[in-house]
């Protein structure tokens, strides 16, 4: 008798699921959406999964997952639906909605095993909006902060390694922005403004791929201003760390063309960098 009751219950759930999935990837009717309160949280959640796998528009899945959260708040299915809502929104490129769902998950279930994934999705929603170098970099800063949270708060999670890689790429992106502006000033003969940008890269973004070029551009800018000591010191730093780089070969040729050697000389901010480098504290 108990087995018959279980079988009947399972059959009812299967039939309800088939009813919900009946519209397939064509989307759901307005009537169906209005009557979702007739279905269980599990049935609505399964429909969201179905739409995510079969619909070309992930927003269809977002709707069903959000309905689980609305109709059955604080249930186990609502918790699952919330993280899936963040994922489906990200798939739909609705990054602000993805961040909102991920943040609600973190606020409501901070100790849950999926909290690390929610934080990663939040960070990814910023990271995937990082545009070409020429655009405003506010989102890059936010991506860095969110990725750092994954790395520091969930260091043993499966998402930490990916967050580290993306953090480094976003960090390099910021340095590339400084380089772009610096090259713009340098090309137009605004040498002091260019130096200020290249200095930011050398001081604040030392571990990025932009550093060798920044040092070479400093050689170029300082030579243009007749500041030979600074140019030579920039060349010395470049040679010490990146001797095989084509940027070093370019800087070396510029210095030798002026009859100058590649050595740290004078007393400028670059000398402090050089001393730190020799002491093993730089790069």
From TrEMBL:
Domain of life from the UniProt record: Bacteria
InterPro entries found in the cross-reference section: BamD, BamD-like
PROSITE patterns associated with the record: PROKAR_LIPOPROTEIN (PS51257)
UniProt entry tagged with the keyword Signal: yes
Key words of the record: Cell outer membrane, Lipoprotein, Membrane, Palmitate, Signal
Signal peptide (UniProt feature, chain positions): 1-21
Chain ranges of the Outer membrane lipoprotein BamD-like domain: 40-234
Membrane topology: Lipid-anchor
Pfam families listed in its UniProt record: YfiO (PF13525)
Compartment(s): Cell outer membrane
Predominant subcellular localization, coarse grouping: membrane
Keyword set includes tRNA-binding: no
Oligomer status and interactors: Part of the Bam complex.
Role according to the record: Part of the outer membrane protein assembly complex, which is involved in assembly and insertion of beta-barrel proteins into the outer membrane.
Similarity comment: Belongs to the BamD family.
Protein name: Outer membrane protein assembly factor BamD
Organism: Paracoccus marinaquae
């Amino acid at each position: 008798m108990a087995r018959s009751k279980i079988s009947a219950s399972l059959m009812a759930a299967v039939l309800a699921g088939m009813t919900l999935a009946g519209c397939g990837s064509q989307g759901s009717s307005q009537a169906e959406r209005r009557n979702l309160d007739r279905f269980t949280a599990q049935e609505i959640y399964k429909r969201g999964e179905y739409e995510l796998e079969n619909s070309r528009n992930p927003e269809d899945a977002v709707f069903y997952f959000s309905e689980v959260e609305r109709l059955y708040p604080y249930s186990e299915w609502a918790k699952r639906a919330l993280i899936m809502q963040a994922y489906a929104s990200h798939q739909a490129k609705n990054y602000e909605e993805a961040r909102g769902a991920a943040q609600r998950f973190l606020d409501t279930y901070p100790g849950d095993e999926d909290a690390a994934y929610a934080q990663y999705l939040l960070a990814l929603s910023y990271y995937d909006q990082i545009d070409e170098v020429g655009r405003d970099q506010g989102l890059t800063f936010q991506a860095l902060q969110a990725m750092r949270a994954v790395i520091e708060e969930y260091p043993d999670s499966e998402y930490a390694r990916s967050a580290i890689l993306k953090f480094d790429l976003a960090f390099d992106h910021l340095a590339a922005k400084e380089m772009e502006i610096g090259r713009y000033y340098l090309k137009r003969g605004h040498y002091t403004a260019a130096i200020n940008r290249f200095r930011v890269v050398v001081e604040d973004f030392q571990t990025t791929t932009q550093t060798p070029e920044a040092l070479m551009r400093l050689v170029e800018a300082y030579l243009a201003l007749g500041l030979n000591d600074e140019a030579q010191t920039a060349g010395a730093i470049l040679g010490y760390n990146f001797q095989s780089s084509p940027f070093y070969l370019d800087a070396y040729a510029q210095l030798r063309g002026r009859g100058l050697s590649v050595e740290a000389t004078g007393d400028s901010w670059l000398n402090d960098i050089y001393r730190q480098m020799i002491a093993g504290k730089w790069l």
